[in-house]
């Protein structure tokens, strides 16, 4: 993840004195709530309809999800670049191209 973006997120939080409220539990709750707000855009709509009609709100809610993800990672001492690369490596092993290409099944079903 771009270190400048992370620095801006942390600066925004710190300038407002909010770090005291950003414990892992409350950040996980906030992250879940923001994901639910993102999902609301798709309730009772097709994907195409939601994206065509609600992209400004989808952008805003996705930004909130990503911001809370950065804050959560910082609160528990995880480096986003490291954990994303580790997960991609794990997924590469679970979903080899020759077995997973064009398929939606979980790795246990391939």
TrEMBL record:
Q: Which Gene3D superfamilies match?
A: MazG-like
The species this protein was found in? Desulfitobacterium dehalogenans (strain ATCC 51507 / DSM 9161 / JW/IU-DC1)
A single GO BP annotation from the record? nucleoside triphosphate catabolic process
- The organism sits in which domain of life? Bacteria
Identification of the protein by name: Putative pyrophosphatase
Write one Gene Ontology MF term: nucleoside triphosphate diphosphatase activity
Tell me the SUPFAM superfamilies matching this sequence. all-alpha NTP pyrophosphatases
**What Pfam families is this protein classified in?**
MazG-like (PF12643)
Please give the InterPro entries that the UniProt record associates with this protein. Answer: dCTP_Pyrophosphatase, DCTPP
């Amino acid at each position: 993840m771009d270190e400048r973006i992370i620095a801006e997120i942390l600066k925004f939080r710190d300038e407002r004195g909010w770090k005291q409220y950003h414990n892992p539990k409350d950040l996980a709750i906030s992250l879940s709530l923001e994901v639910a707000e993102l999902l609301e855009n798709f309730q009772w709509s097709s994907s195409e309809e939601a994206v065509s009609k609600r992209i400004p709100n989808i952008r805003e809610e996705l930004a909130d999800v990503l911001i809370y993800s950065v804050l959560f990672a910082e609160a528990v001492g995880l480096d986003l670049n490291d954990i994303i690369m580790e997960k991609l490596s794990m997924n590469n092993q679970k979903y080899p191209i020759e077995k997973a290409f064009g398929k939606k099944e979980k790795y246990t079903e391939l």
